[in-house]
Specification:
With about 425 residues, the chain is an alpha+beta fold. It has 2 domains: about 15-165; about 190-425, paralog of FGE (formylglycine-generating enzyme), CATH 3.90.1580. The protein is built from 9 helices and 12 strands. It has helices spanning about 15-30, 50-70, 80-85, 110-130, 135-165, 230-240, 250-260, 295-305, 315-325; strands at about 190, 195-200, 215-220, 220-225, 265-270, 275-280, 280-285, 355-365, 390, 410, 420, 425. The strands form 4 sheets. It has a 4-stranded mixed beta sheet. Strands 1-4-12 form a 3-stranded antiparallel beta sheet, with helices on one face. Strand 6 (about 275-280) and strand 7 (about 280-285) form a beta hairpin. Helix 1 (about 15-30) runs antiparallel to helix 4, helix 1 packs parallel to helix 5 and helix 2 (about 50-70) packs antiparallel against helix 5. The relative contact order is 0.15.
Length: about 425
């Protein structure tokens, strides 16, 4: 098959960097509107950071990597914030223990918002000087900072969901949420085999792990047009899916035994029926909605049970590229405020973006020719290329402008607190 290089991504609509900065920072704070002060401070497990920490860490990022080196007049309101709000950037200095972030009551929520306002004031001053100058070194860093904050917007949503679920009262994030889910027959799209170009080949923002664009060989493959539903996953459970070691990878079976998994995270058996905790509270599972909050181990086990497999990340990318063409990406992104994946009965490939991230069978490793930067920002993606799996797409907690065909999300095999789902693939003779 002829190898076709992907067309560069279309340029984003013209908008000043300052306007984008203000919009992204405001969006983070709007996600906090349904919360009360007590919600901001809790960490319910080591992977979950308090809302207050997300608000401060994203400000620390702008302060550390942009303001301090590029605005001579900038002074931090508190030098100790660098220790509290650094995440994993070893070259940026010592850090507070991640698992103990929920034990920090000071600075207060009010003080953290004051910290954000302080950073915002000085970022606007800097951006006013450089806006429109693509060659200024702070311009690219500011773009990175905005996408970094959008990542934390998604984490803020998924983290507060885990915090609220940990509460025996199962309180809702919002009481006005409704997700539509219609019955959709399973269809398949066939990808021809051959050498294909994959990876990012445009000029707009992208993370370093999406490049270089390169050629790879794919076998003929059929990929499902929609995600696996709750009803289909319930059939896997009813057939002993969590009791059959032959379906599981060795470490996955160990997790089932050790953690006593019997269903996806947030599912509960109540009066003989499955119910699911959502950001709208506890409710019966929607049979036609995509199953979500499953680990790589569970996704792989379900695929084996179904006699199929998970797609590779490159098969997924080729499916998305052929389905989306040059159209803007569409889906139930965070702006829709559903905060849960849904479905509809439209024909063709569905749920590529804006419902749930989709596990692939591709290990998260470097593309040929990839080199991480040698400074602290080189730690952003490169140092995690071990014991992680690639997820593609975007979720109902992802901002629209943060999604791309070539975006490579990644999590370890047992991660379940993100909106993660299953799309099947099968080999074609």
């Amino acid at each position: 098959m002829t190898s076709v290089r992907p067309a560069p991504a279309p340029a984003a609509a013209a908008e000043t960097l300052t306007a984008r900065y203000d919009a992204v920072r405001l969006a983070t704070e709007q996600l906090c509107t349904p919360l009360v002060t007590e919600d901001y401070v809790v960490s319910s497990m080591p992977d979950v950071s308090p809302t207050k920490w997300h608000l401060a860490h994203t400000s620390w990022f702008f302060e550390t990597f942009i303001l301090s080196p590029h605005l001579d007049t900038y002074r931090t309101p508190n030098p100790r914030y660098a220790f509290l709000f650094n995440s994993y950037y070893v070259q940026a200095g010592e850090r507070h223990c991640r698992a103990q972030r929920g034990l920090i009551t000071r600075p207060t929520v009010q003080e953290v918002y004051a910290y954000r306002a302080h950073v915002d004031t000085h970022m606007r001053e800097l951006l006013a000087r450089i806006d429109g100058d693509p060659d200024h070194p702070a311009t690219a860093l500011a773009e990175l900072g905005l996408h970094h904050e959008q990542q934390h917007q998604e984490l803020l949503v998924t983290d507060i969901k885990h915090v609220l679920w940990t509460n025996p009262m199962r309180p809702a994030y919002r009481h006005d949420l409704h997700v539509a889910a219609a019955a959709t027959p399973q269809g398949w799209t066939t990808l021809e085999g051959g050498v294909q170009w994959v990876g990012y080949d445009g000029h707009d923002f992208h993370f370093d792990n999406e490049k270089p664009a390169h050629r790879t060989f794919v076998q003929p493959t059929a990929i499902a047009n929609r995600l696996i539903t709750n009803a289909e996953y319930a059939a896997f459970i009813a057939d002993g899916g969590y009791r059959r070691p032959e379906l599981w990878l060795s470490r996955g079976w160990g997790m089932v035994q050790e953690s006593r998994w019997t269903a996806p995270l947030y599912w509960e058996r109540i009066a003989g029926e499955w119910q699911e905790f959502t950001l709208g509270g506890l409710a019966p599972i929607g049979e036609h909605a995509p199953v979500t909050h499953v680990s790589y181990f569970e996704a792989d086990a379900y695929a084996r049970w179904a006699g199929m497999r998970l797609p590779t990340e490159f098969e997924w990318e080729l499916l998305a590229r052929s389905s989306c063409h040059d159209r803007p990406l569409s889906g139930r992104f965070v702006e829709a405020a559903h905060f849960h994946p849904g479905s509809d009965a439209s024909p063709g490939v569905q749920q590529l973006f804006g419902d749930a991230w989709q596990w692939t069978q591709s290990a998260y490793t470097a593309y040929p020719g990839y080199r991480a930067a040698s400074d602290a920002l080189g730690e952003y993606n490169g140092k995690w290329m071990s014991d992680q799996w690639v997820l593609r797409g975007a979720s109902c907690a992802t901002p629209t402008s943060h999604a791309r065909l070539t975006y490579r999300n990644f999590f370890p095999s047992d991660a379940r607190w993100q909106f993660t789902a299953i799309r099947l693939a099968q080999d074609v003779e």
